């Protein structure tokens, strides 16, 4: 097993190619160990090279609503009265700390996605 750091696109491409060859390797074998190491290296390289920005809080909420087939009415229990839900989803009002807590604990939206600053459309 010859594994080296992934420093550029060529190294990345070669590591992905090698993963394809090792994909069905059994755990505990030299090939399985190589596969595990390559996965870690590729993950590190991709996180560093292709960072993904978090969505703004409203987009994070809308995404979770879509995932769970929630309506604006369903959001009343997390954000308050229906007019408040409309204001939040329409970028007219910011989330309060209590709303963030509710969304994090009840809908499991990561707090990191809810605390970033965003512009209101007033």
UniProtKB/TrEMBL annotation:
<dbReference type="GO" id="GO:0006355">
    <property type="term" value="P:regulation of DNA-templated transcription"/>
</dbReference>
<protein>
    <submittedName>
        <fullName>DNA-binding protein</fullName>
    </submittedName>
</protein>
<dbReference type="GO" id="GO:0001046">
    <property type="term" value="F:core promoter sequence-specific DNA binding"/>
</dbReference>
<keyword id="KW-0238">DNA-binding</keyword>
<dbReference type="InterPro" id="IPR039060">
    <property type="entry name" value="Antitox_HigA"/>
</dbReference>
């Amino acid at each position: 097993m010859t594994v080296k750091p992934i420093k550029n696109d060529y190294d990345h491409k070669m590591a992905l190619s090698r993963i394809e060859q090792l994909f069905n390797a059994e755990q505990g074998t030299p090939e399985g160990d190589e596969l595990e190491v390559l996965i870690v290296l590729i993950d590190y390289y991709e996180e560093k090279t292709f960072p993904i920005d978090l969505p703004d809080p409203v987009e994070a909420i809308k995404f979770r609503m879509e995932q769970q087939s929630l309506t604006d009415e369903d959001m009343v229990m997390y954000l308050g009265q229906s007019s408040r839900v409309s204001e939040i989803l329409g970028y007219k009002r910011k989330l309060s700390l209590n709303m963030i807590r509710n969304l994090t604990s009840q809908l499991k939206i990561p707090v990191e996605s809810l605390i970033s600053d965003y512009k209101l459309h007033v």
